[in-house]
Amino acid sequence: MNFPWLLQMAWRDSRRNRARLLLFISSVVLGIAALVAIYSLGDNLRQNIDNQAAELLGADLEISGSRPAGTRMQKLIDSLGTQRSEERSFASMIYFPKNGGSRLAQVRALKGEFPYYGELETQPATAAQAFRDQRQALVDQTLMLQYGAQVGDSIRLGEITFAIAGVLLKAPGQTGISTTVAPSVYIPLRYLEQTGLAQKGSRINYRYYFQLAPKTDAGGLVKLIKPRLDVEGLRYETIESQKEDTGRSFRDLTRFLALVGFIALLLGCIGVASAIHIYVREKLNSIAVLRCLGVKASQAFLIYLIQITGIGIIGSVIGAVLGTVIQQFLPLVIEDFLPIEVTTDISWSAIGQGLVLGVLISILFALLPLLSIRKISPLNVLRASYEPTGRATDPVAWVVYALIVLFIFGFTLLQMKDWREAAVFTGSVLGAFFVLIGMAMLLMWLVRRFFPASWSYLWRQGLANLYRPNNQTAILMVAIGLGTAFICTLYFVQGILLSRVTLSSSGNQPNIVLFDIQSAQRDEVVALARQQGLPVNQTVPIVNMRLEEVNGNTALEAQKDTTIEVPRWLFGREYRVTFRDSLTASEKVTEGAWQGVAPATGLAPVSLEQGFARRSNIEIGDTLSFNVQGTLIPTVVSSFREVDWNRLQTNFVVVFPTGVLEQAPQFHVLLTHVPSQEVSARFQQAVVRQFPNISIIDLGLILKVLDDLFEKIGFVIRFMAGFSILTGLVVLVASVLISKYQRIQESVLLRTLGASRRQIFVITALEYFFLGALAAATGILLALAGSWALARYNFETEFQPQFLPVLIIFVLVSLITVIIGLVNSRGILSRPPLEVLRQDV
What pLDDT does residue 391 have? Predict the structure, then answer.
């Protein structure tokens, strides 16, 4: 094959076309940049999670549960570790006497020297230790800023007042989003009882932190005590398990973003394939001359394959450098989601992956047009216009198509780790491509078949350019249409998520929830709400209980006997159930019969949510035995319910009939509707002053937090989807310039026939307007169809898109396409008519 000679020929042939080859390079740069940035971010996240896992947990071992440890478990806890700390956390209202403000916060009552790794970052720094010894509190900086509080001010928590010892800046495992949703307040554990907030029915989470002796195998220790923890319904966390859980969460994020970046790379490679197709057609004479001089078809093929390989290498290197630069800024975008500090070191493995991926996929897509070189014969010198290349019937082309599909599937499988999900993604990408290409083909056929002969010449010429030889309709429909579809789908899904919450609070729907109301307080709280002129939409009793037996089988028996098809997680959780004599508007019975009143004798009939029953392998007629603070209540499953979880009201997995739980320890939830923020603030202040144990959820605040959260998530995804849009624009630029020679001939012929520069300008503008508008419209239609399917089948809600932003996107994409097309075509307008004669000579 004489590789040095082939390399020399590839270099010589490229000398007249290097500017054009640089355009090929630009098509793959952005896709590689996106992937290298995401891979680098993933590598840095893994490295930082590994290095900071101990600070994330703050201890070697954490044991937690929803009830205090019993006597036997307490002995085990007291025997573990060299140092121990205890924390009780719960949601509660805090009150700022200075300005009368109140807010739901996560109260953490702490005993011991936790954290053992990392620290509670406070201002002043001494407050992290000082608050433990006095009646003082650490208050999250979000709350301090919201209510204008300062160190030395006070907060009231339940029945007692705490001095603010310092501002809490950071705690183990804390993220920016978590502090916005539920800001933390730390107090010493010994003052918890005095607050009056630890009552029967209070939802308190009990945590025990341990520092183990050096060289202790935390995993081995957990294996030893796990059976006892399971029996008590306690959870555990070690540094290794924390590392795995945190890494899994962000691994899913980076995989998703990598798939978005991969789409940008695919678009770029489609642009490369289209551009190389035109490039090879322009090289027909040169290749035919080489064949006349004795060059074999395989040698001619390799000459241009070497060129494309060089393009892939250079483009991948530039993309890797750009991606490494972009990665320095990505942590700033997602820092609110991260419980760790992320360093931005250069990831050589990510750069290596980007280089290999860029070269491989560039060659794969370039092979399709390059295969036609093998069919070019020396006779093309004499009849270049009539000699077919034969690529359409080349069986090798089908092999290349199969390799491309396998490559896409293999890359997706590496990201998703599930062949079904990989197959769905691959099918979706191919489906979108086929739809866009099909629309382009349909458009060209419709324009050719129903050509508007009555339109003016300029409009007819602009439309005719959509199906002329070397047209760009298909490639631009795919590149611009798919990018537009990504942006619009993101916008629609964000709107679906927000509308689900907004609709649930619209009109007279409840937007304030009061919980932890004790039975003795219920009537007084109802009276207070009515005194404030607020409706009482619903009051619901709630009883905490645990499941002891399913069809007579306990957790221990289900664990020993594998033939018992009862999930063990059924026994480890705490159930919050209610009792009533009728169904609510958000429920309907799907199987069995609802019984609202318990019979005088026999098992109490209960109703289960159908999804929970299906996951638990529970059928109608099965028996369940619940434990309510030591009292066993035998029940039988009488019905399954379908529950609309989207509605803002109290929905339950298990519902008892009346006549069973009335005397059980319970608390109540009240739902009401406030017409304004001022009324909400006044009502919350009155509740906190009279009933400090009651917690309040303000849906208006939650909506604001959700809006901010979706906006940040949306920005990250839009940022990545932007690579697809930019790649589409680069492909547009490249496609215009690649076909510039044909454009010069057409322009000169029009000028020779008497067309003015203005007329040629209008024809060009109309062509690119049609291309941009139709590509954007197709992308929007794809987004509408996909978003409707998501709303209908995934979110189970009504899809009501807002069309003004979509119209703005449509206009912007169309204008950008026209502007780029005109800017890159400006040189054509200045060509003199004699140029067509010189080209022929």
Answer: 44
